[in-house]
Amino acid sequence: MSALPGPPSAPDPGVELLERALAYTRSTLATVTPAHLHLPTPCERWDLGDLLGHMEDSLDAFAEGAHGTIDLHSAAPAPVGERIRSLQVKACDLLGAWAGATTPTVAVGGRPMPVRTIARLAAVEIAVHGWDVGRTTGADLPVAADLADALMPTALALALEQHGEFGPPVPVPADAGPERRMLALLGRRAASYRS
């Protein structure tokens, strides 16, 4: 008699956060039109076209990370419709890659990092840049409070390590909600915030 398989393992919380960040960002990407491409974004040095290129590069790199290594490269320029379709497809590919990731560490610039850390970093990067896109297009779709709260520890770690990926932290009132606090840790200001 053979043994019955054990209960399925619980999904990695980092992958669940990644899935939620991707769903949020896909909704903001749906608001982009060609007229938005040259608008400034909350990322001081990028217009929306530059930000979309960076996001495509990031999705590629994070998908590679699911297989154990991240090689940095740049996406070729593309028309907005093609770029958005590519980002949507790569978002799905990324989630599939991470859902099936089996390697315990990822080599980033030759330095090993735990897979769970990379999945959480990806979730923060994707959610924050999704917010940047929505802010730029005027969609202003909020990051769900529970998602922002779950991303907060990783956002704080990024703020403490600052290597230029995001802007320096900005002050917020003590009673600020999770979305505002998370965004402020990564240098985001807005005329209006949701608490």
Q: Helix and strand layout, with pairings?
A:
Elements: H1 13-29, H2 48-65, E1 69-70, H3 80-99, E2 105-108, E3 111-114, H4 115-137, H5 145-161, H6 178-185
Parallel strand pairs: 1-2
Antiparallel strand pairs: 2-3
- Top-tier CATH class of one domain: Mainly Alpha
The total count of helices amounts to 6
Assembly type = single chain
Question: Which sequence of SSEs, written as H and E, runs from N to C?
Answer: HHEHEEHHH
Shape annotation: globular
Question: What is the helical fraction, as a range of percent?
Answer: 40-55%
Strands of the widest sheet, in order across it, are 1-2-3
Mean pLDDT: 83
Structural class: mainly alpha
CATH topology of one domain: Four Helix Bundle (Hemerythrin (Met), subunit A)
Radius of gyration: 17 Å
Low-confidence stretches: 191-195
- What portion of residues belong to β-strands? 5-15%
CATH superfamily of one domain: dinb family like domain
Total beta strands? 3
Under the CATH scheme, which architecture of one domain would be assigned?
A: Up-down Bundle
Distance between the termini: 57 Å
Task: Report the biggest beta sheet as strand number plus sense, adding barrel if it closes.
Answer: 3 strands, mixed
Describe the protein.
This protein has about 200 residues and is mainly alpha-helical. The protein has a domain at about 15-140: dinb family like domain (Four Helix Bundle (Hemerythrin (Met), subunit A)), CATH 1.20.120.450. It is about 55% helix and about 5% strand. It has a 3-stranded mixed beta sheet. A hairpin with a 2-residue loop joins strand 2 and strand 3 (about 110-115). Helix 4 (about 115-135) packs across helix 5 (about 145-160). The termini are far apart. Mean pLDDT is about 85; it is low at about 190-195. This is TIGR03086 family protein.
